[in-house]
Amino acid sequence: MSGEEDLTTAADIVASGGLVIYPTETVYGLGADALEPDAVERVFEAKGRDRSEPISLGVPDIECALEHVHASEHERDFMRAFLPGPVTVVLEGRETVPDVLTGGRDRVGIRIPDHDLARELLDRAGPLTATSANVSGRESATRVADVDPEIRDAAGAILDGGETAGTASTVVDVAAGEIYRRGTNANAVERWLRNHSE
């Protein structure tokens, strides 16, 4: 497990524009300063990810999320019901969110991990890219040992939180009432959307 010193090192690396590997309740993530376009570019390069595929924004809590997105009361109700947790909520981004993160779209996925180590890092380092720590097209890592060598080489620090659950987050656009990717909690999300239609 990672301790205080590891968290400080990881936050310092993020502050200097570098990449870190961190655990979430789903899979290991690859984090960089999500509000700094050059740092986000490094994430795309490390993953070999197509620039048209958006990357989510990881934050420690709903309050922080609302600094970077516009959310209706309906969307806020949903966030309070499901976050922190393995759900990515697609919301309208504010001007702080760089185009490179969203592939030029006006909406961004918000992720608040239900994982103490991840949220501690987010508290210290600020909003991070919330994307799996793997080369695009390969399996997501549920243990540090499973992280692709290319990703390890690109990252300045690795926070080890033990084995993660391995199921991806459910991605949902509450305003559209649409689930884009079914993952953990998908049935509960579907139920909520059905019972709370605007």
Give a concise summary:
The protein is an alpha/beta fold and about 200 residues long.
Can you offer a commentary on this structure?
There is one protein chain. The chain is built from eight helices and ten strands. The chain is α/β, with parallel strands linked by helices. Helix 1 (4-15) crosses helix 6.
First-last Cα distance:
44 Å
CATH class: Alpha Beta
Task: Determine the CATH topology.
Answer: DHBP synthase
Mean pLDDT: 96
Which key terms come to mind for this protein?
DHBP synthase, 8 helices, 198 residues, alpha/beta, ten-stranded mixed sheet, 10 strands, globular
Write the layout of secondary structure elements.
Layout: H1 4-15, E1 20-22, E2 29-31, H2 37-47, E3 56-58, H3 62-65, E4 69-70, H4 73-82, E5 87-93, H5 99-102, E6 107-111, H6 116-125, E7 128-132, H7 149-154, E8 157-158, E9 170-173, E10 178-181, H8 186-195
Parallel strand pairs: 1-8, 3-6, 5-9
Antiparallel strand pairs: 1-2, 2-7, 3-7, 4-5, 5-6, 9-10
Helix pairs in contact: 1-6
